[in-house]
Amino acid sequence: MRSVVLFIAMSLDGFIAAPDGGVDWLTGQDSAAEAADSYGAFVPTIDTVLMGWNTYHQVVTELSPGQWPYEGLDCYVFTHRQASPVPGVRFVSCDPCALVDQLKARPGRDIWICGGAQLIRQLSDRIDRLQISVIPTLLGQGVRLFPALAREQKLRLTGVTHSNGIVELTYQPR
């Protein structure tokens, strides 16, 4: 069965973006050092990407404005906005939990929750694995990874790696 995976980076103090939404702080402790490519190893394990409107907008306007980085993957963007059709992207306004349940029942590779914080919160009960890269930066404020969960969730640490000051933690629900 497919797994739902939260693969994301956060600052040491728990933020996934600066107050203005910026992510230019997503670097290791030494910009000249080469970091492990956990993203490159992760992408072949998925075939579906889920994201909210703000994450989608940031991808197409700031992070990868000239080229859609999720070519060949099924991409669902949760929004109530009217959006022009984009090849490879489905704009949906349905219940995220219901869609994830449908996707998990289909054959395929894993499902990636790319962001943002609101979508992560809505799908927190559906996450099968959390892969969180902790960046050696203290932001002090910004967009929290887990702003306000409905209930406590206990996790089991299943993996730890580190490179260039970035610690990647892998958890599964207990």
Report on the structure:
The chain has 174 residues and is of the alpha/beta class. The protein has one domain: Dihydrofolate Reductase, subunit A (3-Layer(aba) Sandwich), CATH 3.40.430. The protein is 18% helix and 34% strand. The chain is built from 4 helices and 10 strands, in the order E-E-H-E-H-E-E-H-E-H-E-E-E-E. Strands 5-4-3-6-1-7-10-9 form an 8-stranded mixed beta sheet. The radius of gyration is 16 Å and the shape is globular. The model has no long low-confidence stretch (mean pLDDT 94).
Brief summary of the model shown:
The longest helix has 11 residues, at 53-63. Helix content is 18%, strand content 34%.
Provide the spatial order of strands within the biggest beta sheet.
5-4-3-6-1-7-10-9
Q: How many structural domains are formed by the residues?
A: 1
Low-confidence parts lasting 5 or more residues at pLDDT below 50? none
Structural class: alpha/beta
Q: Portion of residues in helices?
A: 10-25%
The CATH homologous superfamily name equals Dihydrofolate Reductase, subunit A
The total count of helices amounts to 4
Q: Span between N and C termini?
A: 18 Å
Determine Rg (CA atoms, Å). Answer: 16 Å
CATH architecture: 3-Layer(aba) Sandwich
Q: What does the largest sheet look like?
A: 8 strands, mixed
Beta-strand level of the residues, as a percent range? Answer: 25-35%
- Tell me the CATH topology: Dihydrofolate Reductase, subunit A
Query: What average pLDDT do the residues reach?
Result: 94
Number of strands: 10
Give the SSE string: EEHEHEEHEHEEEE
By CATH reckoning, the class would read Alpha Beta
Q: Which of globular, elongated, flat, extended, rod-shaped describes the shape?
A: globular
